[in-house]
Amino acid sequence: MNTALTIAGATVSGAVLIINVRSWWKGSRELKALVPYGGGLVTGASWTLCIGGALGAVAVQAVEMNNKLGGKAVHAATGATNGGGTLAHGSMGALSYPGACAVLVAAIVGGIVWKAAGKTDKKRMFGGVLSGLTLCATAGFAQVMAWVPDLYNTLGEQAVNVLNGGLSL
Description:
mainly alpha; 7 helices; 0% strand; globular
């Protein structure tokens, strides 16, 4: 992904992340309550690896949208007119072809889960996807999420192994 996230854009994504963590903290603090947001975060992160495809295009558009929204929000709230510049661009790595297939399958499963989810979980899932799509454009967050391409590459390779007659998952 070649679109850089601005400081203002990161402000929007950071706010979404904080809101979700706060609601979890104020609630039961059960790990299962983080699943909708966390699953969305990993989903969004994985889409940033899909450069050249529709999922990658969604990632680029999300960063651009966040940059514009963040710039307007910071200006409206503080009066600051300087965009603050862009943050260092990052990359989590690359997908193998089987890894890319695993991302596609995960996107389809995610769509099914989205359809079945309640209103609150849909909001959390959307917030997670938005955070993953945008924050993974930064060097620091991409470094934290560097395990995501390995996860999908391993899942894809294991699926190929099973389909080729291998017995282990």
